[in-house]
Design a protein that fits this description.
Layout (H helix, E strand, L loop, with lengths): L1 E4 L10 E4 L10 E9 L2 H8 L15 E9 L11 E5 L8 E4 L4 E3 L13 H15 L2
Antiparallel strand pairs: 1-2, 3-4, 3-6, 4-5, 5-7
Length: 137
């Protein structure tokens, strides 16, 4: 599995694609096959070390993504293998697959949108979450 990581804070040129271990879902987590991840200004700030919070290195940046649930850990309800999701996280989206708590995910409608079409994932995730809260799901 590939991950785009940086070993030190600085310019985006320090980001390297590396092979890492394939994740397995822990209790209360799902693993998502990430089809698309957005690159936003906060991601650049985080990589440069200029964000108000820092994370330990090496760091996998990326905060918005879309993909498909690959595996479901024990205790997870409401998500199944094959479900299409959009998500928001602080860091960690620039990977082929990533473990995520279900609270970071919003279901994606079957609207024909591919992962590479997901240019406004934050808005999609927020709208889906609001709709689900409004409809009581």
């Amino acid at each position: 599995m590939r991950a785009a990581r940086t070993s030190s804070y600085g310019p985006v040129d320090l980001l390297r694609v590396e092979e890492v271990d394939d994740p397995r879902p822990g209790a209360g987590e799902v693993v998502v096959d990430i089809a698309a991840a957005a690159v936003n200004y906060p991601d650049l700030l985080i990589m440069s070390g200029g964000y108000q919070v820092s994370w330990p290195l090496p760091l996998v940046p990326g905060s918005e993504f879309a993909g498909t649930v690959r595996a479901v850990g024990t205790g997870v309800t409401g998500l199944r293998i094959g479900d299409r999701v959009a998500g928001i996280t602080a860091v960690g989206a620039f990977v082929d697959r990533g473990p995520r708590p279900p609270g970071q995910l919003s279901p994606r409608r079957d609207d024909g949108m591919t992962g590479t079409d997901a240019r406004s994932i934050r808005q999609l995730a927020i709208l889906n979450r609001r709709e689900n809260q409004t409809s009581g799901d």
